[in-house]
Amino acid sequence: MSAAKHFLKEFSISSLTKLYSDYISITSAVGIDRLNRNAFEKNLNTEIQLISRKNLNGTYRFSQYKERLISKGPEKYPRVISIPTFRDRITLRALCNMLRATYADQLNTRLPQHVVAEIRKELASGKYKYFLKLDVRNFYPSIDHSVLSSILRTRVRKNIIRQLIVDAIETQTVAYPDKSKESASKGVPQGLAISNILAEIYLHKFDKFMLDIRDVVYFRYVDDILILSKNKPEQLYQKVSAELLNTYKLTVHELNNKGKSKSGLTVENFNFLGYEFCNGLARVKPESIHRLESSLAKIFTAYKYRKDAIPKALPPEQRKKQKNKAKLICRWRLNLRISGCVFDKIRRGWVFYFSQIDEQSLSQLHDLDSTVQSLAKRFKFSPANLKSFVRIFHESKRGNLLHRFIPDFDTVSIEEQREILGMYGVESINKMTDAQINQAFRRRIRKETSELEQDIEGGSGN
What we know:
By secondary structure, the protein is an alpha+beta fold.
C-alpha cells in the first residue's frame, strides 16, 4: 500500500477516533494552548472532524510546541522536550502510524537489550580486537531538513503529506507563545510521536553503508553507535565520521576526546546503552544503578511525607487507616519499580532493560536488594512482601510474561483496576462505568510506567 493510501486510512474519522481512545486519551500533558484533556474532550467529535478535514485537504497548521526541560546532570545542557497540543498530538500520532506502515521494511525494531545480546555474542567469539564508539553531536537538533525531505521523497510522493511532516518539524518549541519566532531551519523536536521514526528513516541508508564495510560488526540504537573491528579503528573513525558529515550533515565528537567518541581494545572497559563491558562481560553501568537507587529513595520519601501529612486530630481508627493506605501505595510502587510490568503489550522496567548482564554481575542486583532493605529500615517500613531484583532477573530470563511475579496490566480485571484506583483515592469509583474505570486505570498506569522509563533514561550515555 502506498504512503498516500496509508495517509487516507489513518486520517479517516474512524481511525482518528480509535487513535484518540487508544493513545491520546491517557495522556495529560498540556500544550501551549493550555487546553487540558477534559476541556478538549467536550468538543472531541468536532475536533476529530476538523483534524481529518484539514489534514486531507492540506490546510492543517501546527501550534507552537510547549517547552519542557529535562536535566541531564551537572555541567550539561538540559534536554528540550516538545509538548504538542491535544489536536497536534492526534495528528502526529496518525502521521507516525502512516510512516510506520510505509517504512515497515526499513525500521529497526530491536530493543536495546537485544542489541546488547548480539554485542555479547560477538565479543565472546573473540574475532574482534578493537572497539569504536561514536557520539553524534546533538543528533536530533542536527537532523538536516533538506536531507530528510530528499529521503522521504522516494516513498512519500504526495506533496501535502511531505509538507505536513516538514511543518511538524519546522514548528518552534517555546516556553510561552511567541509568533515572532521563525520556523526552525533544522532539527527534529524531541518528544513528538514522529521523532524516533524520522530518526530511523534518516539513518537507514547509513546502516546499509556500515554493513558493507569488511572486518567489522556494527551496532546502532538511535544515535548510539558501536563498531567492533579486527583492525585498528583510527582509519575507520575517519571513514565513518566523513560519511556522517558529508551525507547526513551530522558531526561526531573527536576520538577519545573527554569521554565522547572512544576507541580501544575490546578487553578494556567501555560503556554502551547503559551497560559496562569489560573483557567480554556485561554489567550495569554504575550511573544506571545510582539513578535507580535515587528513584527508590524517592518512593520511600513520598511514603514518609504521606504518613506525616495525616492530621493528628483524626480519630485513632482513621489515622490507622490512612497509615495503612500510605503503606499500601508505597509497597505497590516499590514492587512495580522492582518487577516492571507489561503494559500496551510492551515489557517495561529496569530489570528487563538490564536482563543481558552476565551471571558474574548478579552481585549488583543483590546489592540493590540490600539497598531496598536498608531504606525500609531507615524509613521504618516493613519489608514484608517486597519483591527481589534477583528473583525478577531470573523470571525475566524465562520469558514468561504471564508469570505472577511480573504484573501484566493489559489483562487485569475491572475489579482489580477499581481496587488499584481506590488505593490511590480516586473518587466516585462506584459511580464510574467499566469503560471509565479502564480509562482512569490506563492513565494511572501510564504515569507509573513513564517513571519506570525515567529510571533508564540517559542509560545510553558514556
